[in-house]
Amino acid sequence: MKVVTIKDVAARAGVSPKTVSRVINGEQHVRAEIREHVMRVVDELAYKPNAFARGLSSSRSFLIGLFVDDPFSGYAADLQRGAIDQCRMYSHHLVIEAVERERPDWLAQIDATLRELRLSGAILAAPVCDWSEVLELFESHDIPVVRLSPATDPGRAQQVQIDDRAAAREMTERLIALGHRDIAFVRGHTAHGAAALRWQGFADACADAGITIPARRVLQGDFSFKSGLAAGEAILADDDRPTAIFASNDKMAFGVLMVAMRHGIAVPGALSIAGFDDDEISRMAWPQLTTINQPNAEMAKVAVDLLIGNNPQVKKEPGESVELSYSLVERESSGPVMNGMA
Amino acid sequence: MKVVTIKDVAARAGVSPKTVSRVINGEQHVRAEIREHVMRVVDELAYKPNAFARGLSSSRSFLIGLFVDDPFSGYAADLQRGAIDQCRMYSHHLVIEAVERERPDWLAQIDATLRELRLSGAILAAPVCDWSEVLELFESHDIPVVRLSPATDPGRAQQVQIDDRAAAREMTERLIALGHRDIAFVRGHTAHGAAALRWQGFADACADAGITIPARRVLQGDFSFKSGLAAGEAILADDDRPTAIFASNDKMAFGVLMVAMRHGIAVPGALSIAGFDDDEISRMAWPQLTTINQPNAEMAKVAVDLLIGNNPQVKKEPGESVELSYSLVERESSGPVMNGMA
DNA sequence: CTGAAAGCGCTTACAG
DNA sequence: CTGAAAGCGCTTACAG
After folding, report:
1. Which single residue of A24, A78, A209, A218 has CA 20 to 30 Å from A48?
2. Start-end ranges of CATH 3.40.50.2300 in chain B?
């Protein structure tokens, strides 16, 4: 297949390659009629600029990197979807990189990628965005970064997030409004900043309502289904049960729900369960899980906007932060506390 | 940060850039001591060749494209994981592209990507791999392709697959061996070739066992949880129930399981349920689902091997096909048929 | 507003 | 086995 280059377009349009370049890149200082004519020729020839030539001659690669801890997770899948869509909007492409922190050369791996690829920008998903070695690396390469839901070092780069703390607080308040006063909480992975924020939100709401949280009502999980199962077993083993359990993500909530079912505990009749994330799994549960909708795909979209939406030449203010709104999704796994139980 | 180029390495090593190039690319005809010396300098300077310069001057982009229908699915996530790992092994990078067939310009989108990116190779996941327009496009761009679990046009390109038909047959035989003779089947999305193969495997086993399949025992699903729910409702609505249900993927099997639970039907006591895929969800179910393990990540890995593992210059034989082995994973959702029920 | 020249950092094709 | 020259297809910096 004959490859169409900028010269072909220029020759056919009767202008210089530079003018074609200007038109393609939406630069100013091209007469309107020439611009239109060039664009017509571009379409006729189905010309697409070669990304490698562009990347070599300019410093822009038209490549956005998405760095995730676990590419296997639903979270990563959500982010990808949002980012891919938006990259396409701007004629960029998305390169996914797994950060394998368990490998001794994990940082060198990222470094190699950055040297090879000269990314136009990078999206650091949680919890990668909280690893300072990673941030330093990107800073040293001078690559614009957007952090997703960072928990440490606020203001170190642009960021996109929801207010995890407020969301967890709102969920807890809702449970309290339903009459629950004995609520267990399943904490998330300690490496994720969101885990701490969600816990704080829970604690805030309890404090406001004058509820003290006994230590035995707080379980440590790691955001996995399995850890939810373990937490459920621990909480529901004997008759000293809470009337509600708030797990800090849906996978764990789902695990808790499974344990409740095995024990024959009616949900929400005898036990309310709430999760966080609005993971696909929350709709596959029965009863479906009450949860917090976190717009992951949207967050990735916004991250791409921050990276390339505005003038890509202009450095953004570090610390620029976009906060997206969450929503409480009340489904069937939560309900009013039963008479005499409170 | 000062960028290290091939010239820097050449100057420091006291050789020409071309020699450095030879060393980097593992070409022959370099004296061993020079090779080692250059490699040492490369390490000292932490030199990484610029992917854009490479891509521009050679026809190789060091980029592998993964084309998926639904980047949101667990299937896509599995593939990504396998492909990313293996790409890194070969110093390549993975670019994920969503094929949005519902858009009128979907083919033009892919075409644009191919013109811009000059991929070294592409992995087409099911069912993208069965869309002939896509195959034609890659052929016209002369880009090596590996199809994953293709159902049509065998031999049109390299392919990696498991024997879906044999796997479904084996699962069905297992159910029959457990005493089941009244088995319902939930078919998958008609656009997926695997759906037809799994159905055939089921039919094969039934025919062998002398079991005829009444039309009312065959439900049409689309691989989604929701369609599993619908199929479950249809099958389990009245007392005329089969003793086992084989759904052609785990999400649907999970849906069927949920319906059984709501109806108070004991699994596997009164009803055996089997799925396919060994999806994460199959381990989150209770009872856990009996299923077929399909090594998705491994398939993507092998696809990368086919694309770049061997000599990348040499064209592969179209039709070269690698078949990976599956395994039947017997968990708790299936069991012997109850006395008097068969 | 438009263009000619030089260069990005590699590899290809050709010598020797 | 090693290297000098040319070129990949764009953009940058400079003129006019």
Report:
1. A78
2. 63-162+296-311, 164-293
Whose tokens are 């592969």? That residue is: B316
Q: Which CATH class is domain A6-49?
A: mainly alpha
Could you give the CA distance from residue A247 to residue A236 in angstroms, rounded to a whole number? Answer: 14
Minimum distance, in Å, between the CA of residue B337 and any CA atom of chain A = 22
The CATH superfamily of A63-162+296-311 is Response regulator (3.40.50.2300)
Residue B50 CB in 7 A reach of strand C = yes
What number of helices (H) and strands (E) belong to chain B? 13, 12
Domain with CATH 1.10.260.40 in chain A: 6-49
Phi, psi torsion values for B59, nearest 5 degrees: -95, 0
Length of chain A: 342
Q: Are B185 and B199 in contact (CB under 8 A)?
A: yes
CB atoms within 10 A of CB A1: 9
Model-level pTM? 0.84
Whether nucleic acid strand C comes within 7 Å of the CB of A6, the answer is: no
C-alpha A281/C-alpha B200 separation (Å) is 30
- Residue B121, token pair as written in the block: 């190779």
Task: Tell me the C-alpha distance between A204 and A207, whole Å.
Answer: 5
Six token digits for residue B134:
């896509």
Q: Which among A47, A93, A284 is the nearest to B117, CB-wise?
A: A93
Amino acid occupying residue B137: L
Cis-peptide into B287, omega within 30 deg: yes
Q: Residue B218 and residue A192: Cα distance in Å, rounded?
A: 46
Q: Do B117 and A1 touch (CB under 8 A)?
A: no
* A127 prior amide bond cis, ω within 30: yes
Structure tokens at B245: 């249900």
Say if A141 is an interface residue toward chain B (CB within 8 Å). yes
B118 in contact with chain A, both atoms CB, cutoff 8 A: yes
Q: pLDDT digit of tens for each residue in chain B (342 aa)?
A: 577 899 999 989 888 888 998 988 888 788 888 888 999 999 888 888 888 888 888 877 888 999 998 877 778 888 988 898 888 878 788 888 889 899 998 998 898 888 888 888 999 998 999 999 999 999 888 888 999 999 888 788 899 999 999 999 999 999 999 999 999 999 999 888 889 999 999 999 999 999 999 999 999 999 999 999 999 999 999 899 999 999 999 999 999 999 999 899 999 999 999 999 998 899 999 899 999 999 999 999 999 988 886 533 334 455 578 999 999 999 999 999 976 544
> What is the distance between the alpha carbons of residues A34 and B236, in angstroms, rounded to a whole number?
68
φ, ψ for residue A266 (rounded to 5)?
A: -70, 130
Tally of CA atoms within 13 A in the half-sphere of A256 that contains its CB: 38
Residue among B167, B129, B124 nearest B150 (CA): B129
A116/B142 CB distance under 8 A: no
